[in-house]
Every structure is written in C-alpha cells, then in structure tokens.
Amino acid sequence: MEIFFQSSLPRAGSTLLQNILGQNPNFYVTPTSGVLELLYAARENYTSSPEFQAQDSQEMKKAFRGFCRGGIEGFYNTITKKPYIMDKSRGWGIHYNLLDFFYPNPKIVCMVRDVRDIFSSMEKNFRKSQHKNDKIVNHSDMTGTTTEKRIDIWASSQPIGLAMERLQEIIKQGIADKIHFIKYENLIGKPKKEMAKLYEYLCVKGFHHDFSNVEQITKEDDVVYGIYGDHKIQPVVTDNPSDFKKILGLDASNWIKSNYDWFYKRFGYK
C-alpha cells in the first residue's frame, strides 16, 4: 500500500479531483479525512505525557515514528485492499515536516484556483442560503452586511484565510517545491492532460478516465459544515466561465488580486 495526500485550497475542486481519481480501481479516495486529527491527538499525548518524558527520548522518538506510520497504514488496511490511497485534508501541506517524520518524502497534491473565484463561490453559497442564519451577518454592529465586509471576514478566518496563510508559509519554507499543484481551471479545461501529469508525479501507471460521467463516490454530510459545505460534484467535467466580477464587483475583485499578489505571481494567474 502507498498513501498519497491531497491538501488543497477550499472551493478549488478537491472533491472533483478525488472522484475523478476514484474511477481508477487501484485507488481508494477519501472525503475530508480525519486521519490528521488522530495524529494531532497522538502527538499531543506523546509530547506532554510524563510516561513518555520519563523514558529515553531517542528511543521514544523512534517508537512514536513507528506508531504514526503503523497507525495510518493500519487505518487504511482495515478499510481497503487497494494499492493506492489518496487521503484528503487541508492540513497535510503545512504539516509536511510532521508527515515526512514518519512517512518520508510524501507526495502531496494541492488544487489551487483564482482566489477571486474562491471568494465568489463563498458569496454565492451565502446568497443562496438566506433561509438559514450563517452567523456571519450582524446588523446591530454592522458586521458582514456587505459583500466587501464578508470578503474581509473570510480573508481573516477559516477556511479561506487560514488556507491562504498556510499556502504562503508553504511557499516561504520551500515546501511548495515538493508539492504537485493543479490549477482548477486547468483540470476542468484539460482534464486528460492534468491527470496524466498527476500520475507522472505519483509514479503510478496512468488510467483512461471518463470525464463525461464522473460518479460521486465520496460521501460527506454537508450539514456538518453549515451553509458553506458543498461537496457535491457535477458528473461532467466541463470548463466553466469565471463570474467573480459579476458576483463580487470590480473593486472587490481588484482588492483581492492586490491583497494576494504573491499568489498571482507564484501561480501565473492574470
């Protein structure tokens, strides 16, 4: 068994990629995974428990490495006998060094997308869910009451703010050089080409995908994620025109591009 990791931006096609890859019978693909959270908890106990602190530190370090490796492999060995796993969690990228500690030279895939379209997607979900209280708008203190104010909130909180901060840090630390990035726009525009490049990065034999009939095999209860939970995909992979100017307005769109100038330079968006 070989485990790969997907650590993508929100609203950037991560669910679509998982389900395309899931057409390959050699791959087990996950929805948003909780495996990283299991490792968080284990690391906390390993770090703070006096039982570990009282023993030989180098011996415990080796043992903890084996525990983490055995834990993640044992987790998936009980679920599937397929040779390849693609585990999806937004945290894998920023925790590359933790992952590398027990799973050396991990292969991580990251979907990116024009950040203006990411914010636009969030705003569209907000607008179509007015029958529910998303707790982002408070008319009494005038927070979240305009598109621009909501952009400010999302830019400094989860999921967008945290994901963008992590991505910038990944680039600063040089971790980005070890990650395979896929532009959402390229995946929906030229899916065959992008999947071929992905298989080459993973060092796995290619597969003939049917991009006109992508069955959704990952299941997530979006109620857990509130009105912004949207893990449903369309069965046909097709190029969609960008609509951020219409949804956000020109001024807000220009502000996003200026605020994330490092992103546009790094990934060549115009």
Q: Judging from the principal axes of the Cα atoms, what is the shape? A: globular
Helix tally? Answer: 13
The total count of strands amounts to 5
Largest sheet: 5 strands, parallel
Radius of gyration from the CA trace?
20 Å
The strand line-up of the biggest sheet is: 2-3-1-4-5
Overall pLDDT confidence? 93
The helicity comes to 40-55%
Low-confidence stretches: none
> Structural class given helices, strands, pairing?
alpha/beta
Our measurement of the CA-to-CA distance between the termini, rounded to an integer number of angstroms, reads 40 Å
Residue fraction in strands: 5-15%
Order of helices and strands: EHEHHHEHEHHHEHHHHH
Question: Nutshell version of this structure?
Answer:
It is built from 13 helices and five strands. It is an alpha/beta fold and 270 residues long.
Description:
This protein is of the alpha/beta class and 270 residues long. Helix content is 48%, strand content 10%. It has helices at residues 14-21, 35-48, 50-53, 57-77, 96-102, 115-127, 147-155, 160-172, 184-189, 191-202, 244-248, 250-259, 261-267; strands at residues 2-6, 27-32, 84-88, 108-112, 179-183. Strands 2-3-1-4-5 form a 5-stranded parallel β-sheet.
Topology (elements, then pairings):
Layout (H helix, E strand, L loop, with lengths): L1 E5 L7 H8 L5 E6 L2 H14 L1 H4 L3 H21 L6 E5 L7 H7 L5 E5 L2 H13 L19 H9 L4 H13 L6 E5 H6 L1 H12 L41 H5 L1 H10 L1 H7 L3
Parallel strand pairs: 1-3, 1-4, 2-3, 4-5
Helix pairs in contact: 2-4
Key phrases:
5 strands
